[in-house]
Amino acid sequence: MKQLDNNLEQRLRKRIFDLSEILSRELGMSESDINGLVKDSEPKHTYIKETSTQNTGGNVMVDFVELKNGNVIGISDDCVVLYKSKDWWAGATESKALYFDEIGD
Predict the structure, then answer these.
(1) Number of folded domains that form the chain
(2) With contact defined as beta carbons under 8 Å apart, do 76 and 95 qualify?
(3) For a surface tag, which of 26, 75, 86, 89 has the fewest beta carbons within 10 Å of its beta carbon?
(4) Residue 89 has what pLDDT?
(5) Could you give the dihedral angle defined by the CA atoms of residues 21, 23, 27 and 28, in that order, rounded to the nearest 10 degrees?
(6) Which domain holds residue 20?
């Protein structure tokens, strides 16, 4: 990572301090809430873009993990399914399933 020159670093720290003051004074945010904003904006995973849960019909709940490359992993209580894209719902994507009962003990 490139080193900031001293002047730029001081100006940046001042702006962060000013923003923290505004969030605290105007919105009543605590220091930990303000620090949490910065942490929440940092990438959490290397490969995962987002996760969601959907009822796929018949009250079958499936957790979906969308990867940054566009592939999707579907996880239910009996299998894991790999999809080439988010278009799985329309049947417009290839998939492969691995059933837990086929793995053995």
Answers:
(1) 2
(2) no
(3) 26
(4) 65
(5) -60
(6) 6-41
